[in-house]
Amino acid sequence: AIFVSALVRIAFTFFPFKIILKWLGKINVESELHQHPQSLLIRQHIKKAIALCDKYVFWKTECYNQSLTCKLFLKKYHLPSTIYIGCYKDEQGAYHGHAWLRSYDMIITGDKEINKFIVQSFFTE
What we know:
Layout: H1 2-14, H2 17-24, E1 26-27, H3 40-56, H4 63-76, E2 82-89, E3 95-103, E4 106-109, E5 118-124
Antiparallel strand pairs: 1-5, 2-3, 2-5, 3-4
Helix pairs in contact: 1-4, 3-4
């Protein structure tokens, strides 16, 4: 997870966002939402690996980095996923953006306070 996260961080730093958009997948297409117990253990392990990576690396792993890193892991196991990008406006008028990733019925990354964000776009394979 640390190695993949580092590669994603480098990509965000040096590549234009137009190239990274291609990695996200098809825009405004969602993956399956039903439960998938056969892959639950794999998804839980990936969620834990991403959380541990965020805890121990010295660079900042923001929500976009975590979501794309997780998407690459899920792709390795042929598991569908959807990255959501949303924003909200606070009381002072400042906009805040956030990204989170869902695979089947589980939010794997960025699940904190997602209910206050309005989905602007989503991407899937």
